[in-house]
Amino acid sequence: MKKIKLTVNKKEYMLEIKEDTRLIDLLRDVLGFTGVKEGCGEGECGACTVIMDGDIVNSCLVLAFQADGKEIITIEGVESEEEIHPIQQAFLDVGAVQCGFCTPGMILSAKALLDKNPSPTREEIRAAISGNLCRCTGYNKIVDAIERAALYLKRGK
Amino acid sequence: MKKRGIGIGSIFYGTGYGNGFPDVSKAVAQLKSDGKIAIYVGATEVGQGAKTALSQIAAEVLGLSVDDIVFINEDTSITPDSGTAAASRQTYNTGNAIKLACEKLKRDILEVAKDYLGLNSIVGLTLKNGYVYPKTLPEKRVSLGEISESLESSLKEEAVFTAQTTEMDEETGQGAPYWPYTFSACGVEVEVDTETGRVEIIRAVLAQDVGRAINPELIEGQIDGGFAMGAGYALYEDLKIEKGKIKNNSFTNYLIPTSLDMPDIEKVIIEDPESTAPYGAKGIGEPVMIPVAPAILNAIYDAVGVRMTEIPVTPEKLLKAIKEKEMTYNEGKN
């Protein structure tokens, strides 16, 4: 067992974990953040994407102890108390969600992009979500939504 | 060298089970105590938007907003059989069943409203925004909630829609195996790298006959998604099955398109209402995908002059075909 301290969605946790626990299992099974989805479990599909210290990671490929001292954001930590995040609003407004399984990962990849680059081109958006597979939407409405989210975020400031 | 070419593909497709197989959808519509309408159907939502489009059909019949429809599906203990979410059939088949059930329920509501308001007939009664009133005297009205409260048991109607198809004649192959048919066409421009065999889709247009667009945004989403599946089918996806087992059962060796493989698509929705369909709407889930692979293979032919007859057209296969063509050409010159 190993003791770790990490922040998830702005809340600090002190936990004792097994050395071989994956970050995704810690987030889902121990802390209850089931918005983190397990797709392939081998880092190909991006459904389990979370933001760790500002960068996206596949939480199925990160061991929980590697998150010691880090700050994690899952889809549950994206909205504020009053309202959903502008990226989530844009996904709704554009119709970028079909079955929804890839959506949490897509939104977190979009957030990590827009936090660093508030005015991305469509090509930059495509590159930013290229690690997130989607079988329903053909990606185009997701790209539209992230473009629109960039506008919402600018307008909000 | 990079060479560009354009190609088109067009298709027609019969939706529903077809070939005389009984294609039946059932739906139940019920007036709830709060004046909202519950729709019960065994129609599965898998992301295609059935819940939204089918709720819109119910709302349209009853003059309500979609928010006033309580759509209950996927719970087989309380819903009737509406068939599978397959064969691009839910909008047409279950949509028709919902429309029929709601029309029956509407008539029941008007009959109760007639008595409630002390009128002679349901002729000219309007049901709109949750109220029933005579067209000629809108002040004299009763709400759906008041109607529901005045009744001992709630109003409830079931309807069944059975599609019309016949078996094909085994000898001649003639018959009317599907109804309705839908039509689509796709055009793409590709860029082929003749040194690597890699095909990139530069731009695309896809036009789909939808009968009537119940929800254009959902249709656009289906077109994008269908194009991506068609592109994967044409260029990447190769299921390797040995002795009944899938050998490449991971995304590492079974490739599907990523966001970088997709072009922006010019989407054209063609409305030509189908007379037997709910408000003219036909299913488009599968049709949007079908013309994509032929369009891509035609574009490859236009770009490099080789006719690929096996999919997926992987870089290895295309490179081999290009080399073979060059060799044949050079032999011809000597």
Automatic annotation (TrEMBL), chain A:
CDD domains, per database record: fer2 (cd00207)
Pathway recorded for this protein: Alkaloid degradation; nicotine degradation
Keyword Phosphoprotein: no
Top-level division of the source organism's lineage: Bacteria
Stored PROSITE patterns: 2FE2S_FER_1 (PS00197), 2FE2S_FER_2 (PS51085)
Recorded GO MF terms: 2 iron, 2 sulfur cluster binding; metal ion binding; oxidoreductase activity
Tagged with keyword Metal-binding: yes
Protein name: (2Fe-2S)-binding protein
UniProtKB/TrEMBL annotation, chain B:
Pfam families linked: MoCoBD_2
Domain Aldehyde oxidase/xanthine dehydrogenase second molybdopterin binding: 2-263
Gene3D superfamilies listed in its UniProt record: Aldehyde oxidase/xanthine dehydrogenase, molybdopterin binding domain
One GO MF term: oxidoreductase activity
PANTHER family per the UniProt record, alphabetical: XANTHINE DEHYDROGENASE, XANTHINE DEHYDROGENASE SUBUNIT D-RELATED
Name of this chain's protein: Nicotinate dehydrogenase medium molybdopterin subunit
Provenance organism: Thermohalobacter berrensis
